[in-house]
Amino acid sequence: MADEYEPEIGIWYRNIENRRLFEVVAYDEDDGTIEIQYFESEVEELDIETWYELELEQEAAPEDWSGPYDDLIADDMGDTEIPMQPENWSDPVTKSFE
């Protein structure tokens, strides 16, 4: 049986049922809503009743920060073959340093 945890911003939990790791990113006690962000970057909002129905384990923050970016490839960031350079070397910012 898992412990019953209070939602705490910045703490990581694992849902025992589906084994997904997530962090509490917002908690509105007045509305009774909790916003969580899964390691893979998906964001979900739960009500407080749903939170207490979950079987959770508290976890340490993941060491691998790349989880939300696992599905990116170099082409997702634009043309990586062309080095980034200013279009006009004589723009006002450049001239102020001459």
Number of helices: 2
Largest sheet: 5 strands, antiparallel
How much is the average pLDDT? Answer: 80
Topology order in helix (H) and strand (E) letters: EEEEHEH
How would you explain this protein's 3D organization?
- The structure is a single chain.
- By secondary structure, this protein is mainly beta.
- It has one domain.
- 10% of the residues lie in helices and 28% in strands.
- A hairpin with a 5-residue loop joins strand 1 and strand 2.
- The longest helix is centred in the middle third of the chain and has 6 residues, at 48-53.
List keywords for this structure.
98 residues, mainly beta, five-stranded antiparallel beta sheet, 2 helices, 5 strands, 28% strand
Provide a compact summary of the structure:
By secondary structure, this protein is mainly beta. Helices cover 10% and strands 28% of the residues.
Which helices and strands occur, and which strands form pairs?
Blueprint: E1 12-15, E2 21-28, E3 33-38, E4 43-47, H1 48-53, E5 56-59, H2 92-95
Antiparallel strand pairs: 1-2, 1-5, 2-3, 3-4
